[in-house]
Amino acid sequence: MAKVYSRVSKINNVVGRSDYISNPDRQEFIKLTGKSSDFEWEEYAQFEKENQKSQEKNNEARELVIALPNEMSESFSDDVLEEFSHELAQELLGNNRDYEFALHFNQARTNFHMHLLFSERERANERTPKVYKRDMWFDKTTNRMAKANAENAELRYKKGEVMKDKQGNIRYDEVPFTKKEKKFTERSWLKDHQKNIQKVLAEYNYVLDIFDNKHEIAQKKLYKGASADYLDYATNWNQAALKANNKLNKERTTLLKEYRVLKPLMNEYKFFYGKEKEMEKAELNLKIYKRNGYSGNNWNVFQRTAYFLTRYDEDKVNVKLYNELRNKIFRTVFNQDKFNNPTHYFKNLVQKIKDFPNKVQKAKDTLSKRFGTVERYKNHKQNLVQKEKAKAQKLEKERQKEAEWLKEIREKQRKEKERKPPKRNRSRGLS
Length: 431
Prior knowledge:
Blueprint: E1 3-4, E2 6-11, H1 14-22, E3 29-35, H2 41-50, E4 61-67, H3 72-75, H4 78-93, E5 99-105, E6 113-118, E7 136-139, E8 153-157, H5 187-203, E9 209-210, H6 228-268, H7 276-291, H8 301-310, H9 312-332, H10 342-354, H11 356-371, H12 374-419
Parallel strand pairs: 1-9
Antiparallel strand pairs: 2-4, 3-5, 4-6, 5-6, 7-8
C-alpha cells in the first residue's frame, strides 16, 4: 500500500520560493496553483527583515512537500483539486494563516505532489489605527511643523484623524502579525500532520498508510538534478529497502495478527498465569484419587477423604477450565512447535513485538554497510564486480582444467589403441 510522505523545510527567501513553485517557466508541469487570500509574501519578508535580531536571516516561511496519488490529477477536475488543496491546507494550518499551494508533476509525470508554502505567523485580527492626538500645523514654505498662529501655517492633520505612511497605508499601534507558532518546530506536530494528511486523503477515497520510521526503512529521494552516481546509489538502496520492508512487514503482520487473536484468550487465561505447574499437580491428584494409586503412590482412606472434602471440587473445575483454555490457545497459535505453555509463549510473543524496532535497525545497519553513502555504494559495486570477475576466472580455470583432463584421457586412449596388436581374422575353414 502507498505511504503518506511529506517533508518540511525552512524558507528564508519566501518571495523567491513562491515564484519558483508557481512560475511555469521554472517548473516542468504545473497542474494547479492557489492562495488562501489575496496577499503578498513581500509583507512577511519585509516584517522579518525589520525584526531581525542577529546576522542570521529570519525564517520567512516554511514549506511542506506532500506526495499525492498520481491518479488524483486525472480523476479529479481542477475545481475538486482546488477544494482538496484548501481543505488539506486548513486542516494542517488552521483558518487564520496565509498560505500558497502548487500541484506539480515531474517531467515523466510519475510524481504528483503538492508544495504548501505557509507562514509561521498569523495576521493580527484586532489592530488599532494610530490617530493624531492633536492638530498638526506645518509651514507652507519649509514644510516644518509650526505653531497654529504662525505666519504661513496651515492645518494638515486634525486631532483624531487616522495616520498614514508615505504610501498611503494606514499606520497601526500593533504589529501586523502574531508571534511565530512554536508547534511547527515540535516533534508532535511533525508526527501528527501526517495523520491529518491521511485523514483528508481518506475523505477523497484515497486510503494511505503512514510511514513508520521504527518499523520501516526509508526510501531515498530521486530528486531533480541529481548526479548519475547518486541516482544509481538511491535506486539500488530503494530496491534493497523495498525488499527488506516487504520481509519485515510480513513478519510483523504475522506477529500482530497472532497477538490480536491471543490477547482476548489470554485475558480469560489470567487466572492461570504462572500456575501451570499447579494445574499439572492438580490433574495428577485427580488421577490418583480416581485410581487410588498412580505411579507407585497409594493414598489411604484418610488421604482420599481429606482430598475429597478440601480440594476435589475446586481442582476438578479448574483443571477442566485450564485444559479447555489451553487447547483453545494452542489451536490459535501459528508456531505450535514452539509452544510450551501459554504464559511463556505469550510473553515471548509480546517481547518479539517490542524488540521488532531493533530488528528493523539491524536491517538498516546492513543496508548502510552496503549503500550508506554514494562512495560506500561505489565500493560495494566494485567489490561485486571483483567477486564476479574472480568467480568467472575460477570457472574458466575449472573449464580449462576439465578440458586438459579430457585431452589427457583421449591421448591416453589413443596411445593404448596404438599399442594393441591388430586383431587377426579367424579361419573358418573345415577341419
